[in-house]
Design goal:
Elements: E1 3-6, E2 9-12, E3 24-25, E4 33-34, E5 42-49, H1 54-65, E6 75-81, H2 84-88, E7 99-103, H3 108-112, E8 131-135, E9 141-146, H4 152-162, E10 180-182, H5 188-201, E11 204-205, E12 208-212, E13 215-219, E14 225-226, E15 228-231, H6 235-257, E16 263-265, E17 268-273, E18 279-283, E19 296-301, E20 306-308, E21 311-312, E22 320-321, E23 328-332, E24 337-339, E25 342-350, E26 353-355, H7 357-366
Parallel strand pairs: 5-6, 6-7
Antiparallel strand pairs: 1-2, 3-4, 5-8, 8-9, 10-23, 11-15, 12-13, 14-18, 15-17, 16-26, 17-25, 18-24, 19-23, 19-25, 19-26, 20-25, 21-22, 21-24
């Protein structure tokens, strides 16, 4: 990425139109906050440096005076502190909804965004380029307001926020998510058969994957996800499912995305049950070493007699999708997506991932970093 210089220092140059770098950093309320999950609203990053000096105090005063703007629905604000005293003295604190602070004491985030030089080390005295940065709901930069000696940039940033349209019309109109919707992938008899298999055997609580100390591990957190899964192990049933994906899904993926899927991961029937308050909060499906090979997610509803349980794509607005039984919603695994709580009945769905031979080699290379992965071979 191009940079600008300041004496002997080189800084990242993040400007309007650029994608905002993703990162994981400690915050005032989360020891490992995944920044990419905040998409779906306007996001303000306030790189105030320290709440202990006049410029930082003035920025936080502007935040306080405009508290009503930050509601986590339309706008979320993240302050970024470089000063450990901000935490130890309680000068900054989370204020929900809408206001959080990253404790960027190692400078990781500030280096990514050009606030600190690329070569800055913790504790060193270097020029700090403080600024406000406004991101759109897809986490692309809309505007940057560098700090001014008189603090006027804070008022300008707030005026900019007030003039923005609703988040789902940030581009001037509603932007549809880049997804496929395909009816009639599974016939009614196959849907009933898959549900029957789940009901006969029951499902097991399923978690999600997280990166912990360089390894991909399974995690269970009912605040984030609640679902029970049954793994299909009957060869004839697996072949029946494969045949329909090959004939009815793969050609559409190749037509729309110019991608030829050759592999399928997991043959599960998932059950989102109202009695469990089942749901899956916003997430991406390929953000760990153990899931990086995944290219497309397929969500095929097996029934329709439930309420809630709809799939949405927060980066592209609030519209949610509930296809008829046998229909599929297909989307790139990198898209942020969520499943709303089921409020009545049970939603049954077939939920595989698709990938290709190149991704299979990546899966094999990464398998040594995955808890319980076994000896995965791409040629298998």
């Amino acid at each position: 990425m191009a940079g600008t210089t300041d004496v002997a220092h080189t800084y990242a140059n993040i400007t309007a139109g650029d994608p905002a770098p993703w990162f994981k950093q400690r915050s005032t309320g989360n020891p490992s906050y995944m920044f990419d999950t905040v998409a779906g609203r306007y996001v303000v990053l306030c790189f105030y440096g320290s709440a202990g000096d006049p410029l930082g105090r003035n920025a936080l005063r502007v935040v306080d005076e405009n508290r009503a703007l930050f509601d986590d629905d339309r706008v979320a604000l993240f302050g970024v502190s470089l000063d450990p005293a901000d935490e130890s003295t309680g000068r900054v604190a989370e204020s929900l909804p809408g206001i959080r602070h990253f404790l960027d004491f190692d400078g990781k985030v500030s280096r990514l965004y050009g606030v600190l030089p690329r070569d800055a080390v913790a504790g060193a005295s270097v020029p700090v380029r403080r600024s406000w940065m406004v991101l759109d709901p897809t986490l692309r930069v809309m505007a940057v307001f560098p700090f001014a000696p008189d603090g006027a940039e804070g008022a300008a940033a707030m005026a900019f926020l007030r003039a923005l349209p609703p988040p789902d019309r940030f581009a001037g109109f509603e932007v549809p998510p880049p997804i496929l919707v395909i009816p009639n992938v599974f016939e009614a008899d196959l849907c009933r058969l898959l549900i029957e298999r789940y009901e006969r055997h029951g499902g097991e609580e399923s978690g999600f994957m997280r990166e912990v100390d360089g390894r991909t591990v399974g995690v269970t957190d009912h605040r984030h996800k609640r679902r029970r899964d049954y793994t299909i192990d009957e060869p004839d049933l697996i072949k029946a499912v494969q045949a329909r994906i090959l004939r009815r899904v793969n050609p559409e993926i190749q037509k729309v995305y110019a991608f030829k899927a050759t592999r399928m991961e997991r043959y599960i029937v998932g059950c989102y049950a109202a009695e469990d308050n089942a749901h899956f909060r916003a997430h991406r499906d390929n953000t760990t070493l153990g899931t990086a090979h995944r290219r497309f997610a397929v969500s095929i509803n097996l029934n329709g007699d439930f309420a809630g349980g709809e799939v949405s794509f927060p980066e592209y607005g609030r519209r949610s999708y509930k296809v008829a039984p046998g229909g599929a919603v297909i989307f790139p695994c990198a898209l942020l997506h969520a499943v709303s709580p089921v409020t009545r009945g049970r939603r049954y769905a077939f939920l595989p991932f698709l990938y290709d031979d190149e991704a299979a080699r990546l899966r094999e290379a990464n398998s040594r970093h995955v808890e319980g992965a076994g000896d995965y071979k791409a040629a298998g």
